[in-house]
Amino acid sequence: MKTLASCALHFAFCTLHFAFCISYSSVAHATQPARAADPSGKETSAAPSAVQLRTFSPGAVWPDTNGVHINAHGGGILYKDGTYYWVGEKRGRQQEALGFNVYSSKDLYNWRYEGVALAPVEGDPQHDLAKGCAMERPKILYNDRTKKYVMWFHLELRGKGYSAARAAVAISDKVAGPYKFLRSFRPNGNMSRDMTLFQDDDGAAYHIFASRDNVDMRICRLTGDYLGPTSEDRVISSDEREAPAMLKHRGKYYLITSACSAWAPNAARLYKADSIRGPWSNEGNPVRGPNANTTFGCQSTHVLPVAGREGAFIFMADRWRGNGNLIDSRYVWLPIQFDGDRVVIEWMDHWDLRWFDKAGRTDIPVGRS
Ligand code: GAL
User: Fold this and answer.
1) Domain 39-358 belongs to what topology?
2) What are the DSSP calls for 80-130, one per residue?
3) Which atom of ligand 1 is nearest the CA belonging to 136?
């Protein structure tokens, strides 16, 4: 039987313990602005983060406006009406694919969570998106003619490893979704794994994808509504490349790719062409400096043109945590430098968009920081 004294002691201890926890958590929040993502993949409610980010810190935990590490891997970004929308893989425990998350931002540093754009389907094992499928590398374009947002992504069917090698298409009236799944297929009968989309200045859009068991990198023009492939379908390279990310600068087309080593990083390689129809030349690794041979431990996913700044492009890459928790994979964003018509990417611990101003022109001398 508890005595009054032991109850009082217990009460005092609990009060002290509670006070300690409260003060510890506020210290932890202040000193560690972001909580690493919950490995279960659940978005836990978090106190709004007072931290306003003003720089990019490649490879660091990147808190959204709720203070939770952004969960949008292998992603792409669409700029629409003054806002950037980042769509990427929502990852859970280990390699769990939970569909695609969307975040929005006006300044590229601070991202607000907008929700799930497309989720795997529960309770219908025959569905192309049946839970257990792999949904990777989503990219979104806006079709000015149909006024629809069109999403393409890499789909692997549940229980079939990476053998299905399909592209999948979904559509929405709203950029952040929800998106309606339309279909999955092999474009013109070709295998389609890692992929990206590219919209040219004339409005034509292209699907760029690793094909023939990743031996070929193909580029296929999309139909006017962006919902399917056309017969304008060519091979860019047959060098076993993946993770394509494309940009156009001063009339030239550049494609950044990785080698094929699953979640493990490797050396990037750039291809260049005067026409989107090719021919494409192999320009070697655009990454310079220490760890260039592993692309700074990363794999390319997208090149983001900074809105309203001619010649300002951000290289977006994933530093995968493939053997642990994919959800905790990091983002490495770095400015693209042009040395004549060569693309150069160098490491920076921290940087911000003023970096592009400092150049005062579109070509930035290589080596400046
Ligand atoms: C990588 C690919 C990723 C993912 C991974 C699975 O090569 O770029 O998107 O598919 O393989 O191992």
Assistant:
1) Tachylectin-2; Chain A (2.115.10)
2) ETTEEEEEEEEE-STT-EEEEEEEEESSSSS-EEEEEEE-PBSS-TTSTTB
3) 9
